Amino acid sequence: SVDCSFSRGVCDWKQDADDDFDWNPADRDRGDGYYMAVPAFVGHKKDMGRLKLLLTDLKPKSSYCLIFSYRLAGERVGKLRVFLANKKTTPVWEQNKGKDERWRTGKIEIFQGAETTNSVTFESERGKGKTGEIGVDNVILISGLCPED
User: Fold this and answer.
1) pLDDT digits over 89-117, tens only?
2) pLDDT digit string (tens) for 40-74?
3) How many CB atoms lie within 10 A of CB 60?
4) Is residue 57 left, alpha or beta, with left meaning phi > 0 and alpha meaning psi from -120 to 50?
5) Which whole-number Å values give the CA distances from 134 to 31, 59, 88, 99, 130, in the listed order?
6) Number of domains forming the structure of the chain
7) Do residues 60 and 142 touch, judged by C-beta distance below 8 A?
8) Does residue 87 form part of some domain?
9) What is the extent of the structural domain holding 43?
10) CATH number (domain holding residue 92)
11) How would you classify the pairing of strands 34-39 and 78-84?
C-alpha cells in the first residue's frame, strides 16, 4: 500500500493552476499532523478548488483501491467530488452534505485497463454556506479490490 496522507505521505500532490482557489493545510484536533481543507467562506458559490494526486508506476490491467477520509462540515458547505484522469468529465465519487461534522471513509476502485490512470483529482465546489469546511485526509492506495467494511 502507498501512503498518500499529507503529513508524511510519499505521494506527489499538486494544486490545479486553472481553478478558483487552493486547498490548504489545516491542523488536526489531536495535533498529530495536518489534513487538507477548503473553508466554506473561500471564493464564491460554484467556485472550484482542485487538488491532484499524481500516480506513477501503477501496473496496467490491475486493480487498486483508493481509501480516504473526508468531512463536509457546516450548513450547505458545497460538494466534494473525485475524478480519475482517464474519465475526466464524470466524477467517480461525489458527496454533497455531511450529516454531522464527523470524518467518514470514502473508497474508490481503480481498474487499470490498457490505459492507466495517472492521476486522481479531489474537487471542492463552494456551496451557499459561510461556515464549516470540506476536508480530506489519510489518502491511501492499496493494490487489489477495496475491502468490505
Assistant:
1) 799 999 997 678 899 999 999 888 777 78
2) 988 899 999 999 999 877 787 888 999 999 999 99
3) 9
4) left
5) 19, 31, 21, 13, 12
6) 1
7) no
8) yes
9) 1-141
10) 2.60.120.200
11) unpaired
